[in-house]
């Protein structure tokens, strides 16, 4: 069995106290066969390293490189998070392009390639994650690496009309086609990628067929990411009875409870969600004193100016809403920017009558799936979900909203808060069935089968 080599921007190093994130959990079966995971250590050094430090842990070995401060600024803060992230989330107005950042992006990708090439065995399968590392396959090929290399994009893609805003747009598409497999979260993203291929490279793809580029086949397909729903459901049930779960329950004091859990990121649509909550209290006064909304918005990318601006806006909006509607014994909006442990989150979701997931654009959004998984099937809550999240392609029994229309979110909040038990159970049953079908494990299996060349174009393993 070939070894799997994962490459991503960050590595969940156990020695750094990293919690097992979605990808780590999803890959646990893969790790049993032995695997290597390469990424940035999270440390800054005088120079960007081109040889990795190895942290052997048994079956899963980690390899890390340090970045220089200048490369961190240009590669991570600059091109990755001030150009590619806003572009791929349909926010071209937030794009801050700088040629030096672009150079930094290239040179860090070359450093990754050098560090990885030294560690490779001939039959390793290389699986590269996300927009930080798009040019990595090309950089590895330049060093003579012949292994199969796959790329999975966790974030959305954009149609040619938006992609053309990017300086060097065509070059980036070519970099994506240097892989053997290119995976997207949702059909819409794949569709937009095909639109770019047609417009920039004059490539028309027959549905289900690989793309032929420079004489090589490139498999392009969707591989929707999922969670281990049953494990999360068990965790939620257990956590609802924990100390934190109990404290939350006491503090809600019999009121209806709505929850939002996001990174503090402009793609998550938080200002519109806050505004929608303000309208709810204004337009439906019956909810005043009777509903509490908890927003957990973990601080993220604080080096990027736009994130600092967003934080100020949310501080202001939350203050305004509470100032206007609170009473001496009721605070309508609880807003915290600290991260919460996974176990506590699971328990909090279970207590919430409404789960608010309203991003302006999102690759998948795993919080939507976690909220559904955490519900008590006998008394489930209602998911309010943006139609611009990848998750909405599948989770159609949620209340689907347009996140750009705060009043539509308000109406959805109201509908969710008053929804009768039968309808809640009916919707939840269907949603739970869906999140158990597309899981973390099925995502990994399907992608790795495609990468190993043992899958048909539908992602099903062939009989060989
Ligand atoms: P993210 O943009 O980080 O990920 P999301 O999928 O919602 O978005 O969250 C990833 C994980 O982080 C989830 O397990 C969630 O519970 C956790 N998380 C989020 N906010 C948190 C908070 N405030 N406190 C604690 N934990 C929190 C990117 C893409 C997504 C895609 C994922 C996976 O942007 O579209 O779903 O990758 O592919």
TrEMBL record:
Which molecular-function annotations from GO does this UniProt entry contain?
Answer: alpha,alpha-trehalose-phosphate synthase (UDP-forming) activity
Entry-linked SUPFAM superfamilies: UDP-Glycosyltransferase/glycogen phosphorylase
Q: Which Pfam families match?
A: Glyco_transf_20 (PF00982)
Species assigned in the record:
Methylovirgula ligni
Q: Which PANTHER family match?
A: BCDNA.GH08860, TREHALOSE-6-PHOSPHATE SYNTHASE
Q: Which GO terms describe its biological process?
A: trehalose biosynthetic process
- Family to which the UniProt record says this protein belongs: Belongs to the glycosyltransferase 20 family.
The cross-references to Gene3D superfamilies, in alphabetical order and at most eight, read: Glycogen Phosphorylase B
Name it.
Answer: Trehalose 6-phosphate synthase
């Amino acid at each position: 069995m070939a070894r799997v080599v994962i490459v991503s921007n960050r590595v969940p190093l156990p020695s750094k106290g990293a919690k097992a994130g979605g990808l780590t959990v999803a890959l646990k079966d893969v790790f049993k066969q032995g695997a290597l995971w390469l990424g940035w250590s999270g440390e800054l050094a005088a120079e960007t390293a081109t040889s990795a430090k190895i942290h052997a842990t048994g079956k899963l070995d980690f390899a890390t490189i340090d970045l220089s401060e200048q490369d961190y600024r240009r590669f991570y803060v600059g091109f990755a998070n001030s150009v590619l992230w806003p572009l791929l989330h349909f926010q071209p107005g937030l794009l801050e392009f700088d040629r030096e950042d672009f150079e930094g992006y290239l040179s860090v990708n070359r450093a990754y390639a050098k560090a990885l090439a030294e560690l490779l065995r001939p039959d390793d399968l290389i699986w590269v994650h996300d927009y930080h590392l798009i040019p990595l396959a090309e950089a590895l090929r330049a060093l003579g690496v012949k292994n199969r290399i796959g790329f999975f994009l966790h974030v959305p893609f954009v149609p040619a009309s938006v992609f053309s805003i990017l300086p060097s747009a065509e070059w980036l598409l070519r970099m994506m086609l240097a892989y053997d497999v290119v995976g997207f979260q949702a059909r819409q993203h794949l569709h937009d990628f095909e639109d770019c291929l047609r417009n920039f490279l004059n490539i028309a793809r027959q549905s289900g067929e690989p793309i032929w580029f420079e004489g090589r086949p490139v498999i392009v397909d969707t591989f929707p990411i999922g969670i281990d729903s049953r494990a999360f459901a068990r965790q939620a049930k257990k956590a609802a009875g924990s100390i934190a779960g109990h404290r939350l329950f006491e503090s809600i004091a019999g009121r209806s409870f709505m929850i939002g859990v996001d990174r503090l990121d402009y793609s998550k649509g938080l200002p519109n969600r806050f505004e929608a909550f303000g309208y709810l209290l204004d337009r439906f006064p019956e909810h005043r004193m009777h509903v509490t909304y908890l927003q957990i918005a973990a601080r993220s990318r604080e080096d990027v100016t736009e994130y600092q601006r967003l934080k100020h806006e949310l501080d202001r909006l939350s203050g305004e809403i509470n100032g206007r509607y609170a009473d001496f014994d009721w605070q309508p909006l609880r807003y915290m920017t600290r991260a919460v442990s996974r176990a506590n989150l699971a328990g909090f979701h279970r207590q919430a009558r409404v789960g608010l997931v309203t991003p302006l654009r999102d690759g998948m959004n795993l919080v939507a799936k976690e909220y559904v998984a955490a519900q008590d099937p006998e008394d489930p809550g209602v998911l309010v979900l943006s139609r611009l999240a990848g998750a909405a392609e599948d989770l159609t029994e949620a209340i689907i909203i347009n996140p750009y229309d705060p009043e539509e979110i308000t109406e959805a909040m109201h509908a969710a808060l008053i929804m009768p038990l039968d309808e809640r159970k009916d919707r939840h049953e269907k949603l739970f069935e869906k999140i158990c079908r597309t899981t973390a494990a099925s995502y990994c299996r399907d992608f790795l089968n495609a990468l190993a060349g043992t899958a048909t174009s539908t992602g099903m393993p062939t009989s060989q």
